[in-house]
Amino acid sequence: PPVDEQFILQARSSGYTGAIAATSLGSKEFKALGTAGNGIYLCASYRDPTTDFAGGKQFLADTKNVKGMEIGTASENAWLGVYMVRDVLKTLTSPTRASVFNALSNLTSANTYGFTMPYTSTTPYTGLGGKFPRLMSRYSYYEQLKDGKIVLLSTTPGLY
């Protein structure tokens, strides 16, 4: 299991009952912790698709028959990328590599289907010393595991 999952299981089996926050757990690991995961906090770049929002429902419907796929940032990012490029292609009458690149480089308030706040590619990210100017989302969603379910603590993400 991932390091976070191992740490959490060890801490709980040793009697630790305090708060624990995790960053690298996907839905599968978060739920696999069972009662040891109750109360664990999760900080994520994307809203978990199981937290009842339209984009999450669409993601789950689109991916339910994909063998071996795990719900997590990688699968959510791939799905969202396809949808966002599709949305850009709908705006172009004769798409070329250059016109698609230009359109993606000039997005303002692009629909991310509720996984993140609307995305704008025209404002470079200056945090972290400016080393990641195209950082997609500057927000984190805070969730908690309660009774085997991931619960969104706020529909408004925190800014980092």
Explain the layout of strands and helices.
Blueprint: H1 3-13, E1 21-22, H2 27-32, E2 41-44, H3 54-63, H4 73-90, H5 97-105, E3 139-146, E4 149-152, E5 158-159
Parallel strand pairs: 1-2
Antiparallel strand pairs: 2-3, 3-4, 3-5
Q: How would you characterize this protein structure?
A:
This protein has 160 residues and is of the alpha+beta class. Helices cover 34% and strands 12% of the residues. It contains 5 helices and 5 strands; from the N terminus they run αβαβαααβββ. The protein has helices spanning 3-13, 27-32, 54-63, 73-90, 97-105; strands at 21-22, 41-44, 139-146, 149-152, 158-159. Strands 1, 2, 3, 4 and 5 form a 5-stranded mixed sheet that branches. Helix 2 (27-32) links the parallel strand 1 and strand 2. The chain is elongated. The chain starts with a helix and ends with a strand. The model has no long low-confidence stretch (mean pLDDT 86).
Short structural summary:
With 160 residues, the protein is of the alpha+beta class. The protein has five helices and five strands, in the order αβαβαααβββ.
The quaternary organization reads as: single chain
Q: Tell me the series of helices and strands, N- to C-terminal.
A: HEHEHHHEEE
Main sheet attributes: strand count, strand direction, barrel closure: 5 strands, mixed
Low-confidence parts, pLDDT < 50 over ≥5 residues? Answer: none
Tell me the fraction of residues in β-strands, as a range: 5-15%
- State the total count of DSSP E strands: 5
Mean pLDDT across every amino acid position: 86
Q: Based on CA inertia axes, which overall geometry fits?
A: elongated
- Count the DSSP helices: 5
Spatial extent as radius of gyration: 18 Å
Helix percent reads: 25-40%
Distance between the termini: 28 Å
